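queue> pop job 88
queue> type: inverse folding (structure -> sequence)
queue> payload:
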């Protein structure tokens, strides 16, 4: 009877709400926008009467439309007592993030939705959300939900992601090294593939971590099996490989710009069946071959044209740029580190095979590609990433969005650094294009980084969902807070103190901002992301000459 009297004083309250209200922990004394201040109830000894909330806890407030859901963002005692047994005024600050709507026709269904249509009034009772309320909030009515862990407030309540909202608008996983980013990414991707057997996911793996994480579901492309022919590179990418972006190479660049289209025309004219894909190009302007057209050509043709051009020069000093360019091309063709790009005695049009293997078209039971980039020379790593990201966007666009692709960019601060003077401009351009326009064509971006403050803020601002793991650096914390547009930014105050495997999940890809603990990966499927064990490595002497010879052999041969 007491409960019914309290509830009826608030306004229109259904019996269903009365049944779920429980004991009040306090009442609202101030409302300002989405923020509210609550005075906690206490007995004559100053002890809370309805439960003690903590930072990040969910509370509910009865309103005309149903239950307003809020997140505890602050706890305080304005005037502390001098003794523990004295009465104190305890204040709770909450941010209202959504509401649970109960059907007015008496039906039992209750649905959670973001946003608040009817704000609570002064004096409204506040209750801790628990049990059934949490189940309604975190279950969502979206289809194809994927479990990734459990919520911190109640480990029995699963934490889900909403695949379409997560991928269509990009997402990021950030956290200090050692906090479990690689495991979190693997868990999210494994859940995606479990629900979607015909996914197209590419993981750019610079440290060879992810190969064991997906078992036989992954197509692993390592240093010895990577194929990315030089003729797939556009002009900017090829100049970076051949000239290294060095200043004062204008002559070499102009020579390349002139002879590459001729070499492509020569190949097209004499390749016969090998050029069938090119000959299917529609007539008219579509047949024009430019320096960026992905058409095969022979390195031998470039060298031959360089020799011809040098033979026409009458001043010895004019030969220097041509000789330098020729020497660089010849050096790369015999460098084992560049075999994936310049290797092979013959030139064939394998664009179909390259695209099909990297982007899993057809899927053939392997919806994810792990590109182990640890064996790619560091000076052209950015070029390889640029080519893959650019081809992903072009494939999605020219396939009329029939092949949605997700690119997972591990160590993203390498490729899209905040400092405009660093990095490789075509790589920045390719990743930025996906971040800004990928949604329209079906290309999704997952940004993984341990230093959010070192990444281009434009990229991070385009991610609508962020999984923020422990961050101890103040600059990193501020960058993440600036990128979050959700009302529950106060949750990010936990970032410095969270444990490994925990994250704050905020954005459109999750039902509600929440602190979660990721599930454990099955045995044998954890990424190789743990550091070297010094104590184990120093237990025995491995200083034999044979051991050093074996290391040198692998070093020189660029083998794993």
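queue> result:
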């Amino acid at each position: 009877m007491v409960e019914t009297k309290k509830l009826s004083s608030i306004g229109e309250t259904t019996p269903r709400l009365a049944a779920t209200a429980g004991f009040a922990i306090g009442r609202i004394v101030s409302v300002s926008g989405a923020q509210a201040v609550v005075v906690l109830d206490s007995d004559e000894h100053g002890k809370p009467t309805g439960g003690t909330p903590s930072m990040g806890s969910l509370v509910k407030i009865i309103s005309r439309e149903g239950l307003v859901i809020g997140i505890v963002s602050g706890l305080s005692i304005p005037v502390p007592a001098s003794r523990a047994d004295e009465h104190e005024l305890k204040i709770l600050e909450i941010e209202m993030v959504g509401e649970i709507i109960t059907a007015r026709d008496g039906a039992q269904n209750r649905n959670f939705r973001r946003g608040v249509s009817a704000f609570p009034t002064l004096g409204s009772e506040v209750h801790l959300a628990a049990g059934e309320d949490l189940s309604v909030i975190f279950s969502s009515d979206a289809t194809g939900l994927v479990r990734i862990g459990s919520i911190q407030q109640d480990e029995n309540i699963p934490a889900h992601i909403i695949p379409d909202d997560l991928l269509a608008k990009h997402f990021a996983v950030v956290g200090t090294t050692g906090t479990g980013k690689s495991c979190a990414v693997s868990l999210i991707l494994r859940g995606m593939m479990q629900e979607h057997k015909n996914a197209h996911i590419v993981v750019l793996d610079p440290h060879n971590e992810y190969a064991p994480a997906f078992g036989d579901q992954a197509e692993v492309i390592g240093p010895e099996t990577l194929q990315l022919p030089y003729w797939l590179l556009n002009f900017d990418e090829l100049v970076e490989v051949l000239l290294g972006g060095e200043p004062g190479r204008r002559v070499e660049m102009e020579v390349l710009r002139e002879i590459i289209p001729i070499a492509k025309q020569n190949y097209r004219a004499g390749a016969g069946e090998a050029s069938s894909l090119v000959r299917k190009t529609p007539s008219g302007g579509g047949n024009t071959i430019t320096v960026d057209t992905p058409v095969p050509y022979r390195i031998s043709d470039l060298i031959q044209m360089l020799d011809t051009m040098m033979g026409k020069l009458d001043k010895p000093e004019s030969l220097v740029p041509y000789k330098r360019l020729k020497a660089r091309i010849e050096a790369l063709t015999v460098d084992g580190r560049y075999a994936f790009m310049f290797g092979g005695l013959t030139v064939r049009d394998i664009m179909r095979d390259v695209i099909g293997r990297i982007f899993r078209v057809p899927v053939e039971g392997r919806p994810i590609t792990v590109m182990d980039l640890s064996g790619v020379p560091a000076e052209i790593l950015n070029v390889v990433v640029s080519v893959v990201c650019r081809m992903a966007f072009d494939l999605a666009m020219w396939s009329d969005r029939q092949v949605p692709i997700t690119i997972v960019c591990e160590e993203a601060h390498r490729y899209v650094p905040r400092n405009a003077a660093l990095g490789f401009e075509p790589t920045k351009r390719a990743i930025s294009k996906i971040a800004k326009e990928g949604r329209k064509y079906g290309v999704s971006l997952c940004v993984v980084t341990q230093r959010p403050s070192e990444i281009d803020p434009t990229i991070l601002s385009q991610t609508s969902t962020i999984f923020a793991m422990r961050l101890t650096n103040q600059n990193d914390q501020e960058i993440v807070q600036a990128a979050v547009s959700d009302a529950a930014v106060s949750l990010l105050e936990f970032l410095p103190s969270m444990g490994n495997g925990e994250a704050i999940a905020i954005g459109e890809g999750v039902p509600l901002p929440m602190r979660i603990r990721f599930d454990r990966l099955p045995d044998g499927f954890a990424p190789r992301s743990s550091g070297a064990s010094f104590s184990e490595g120093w237990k025995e002497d491995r200083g034999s000459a044979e051991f050093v010879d074996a290391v040198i052999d692998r070093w020189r041969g660029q083998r794993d």
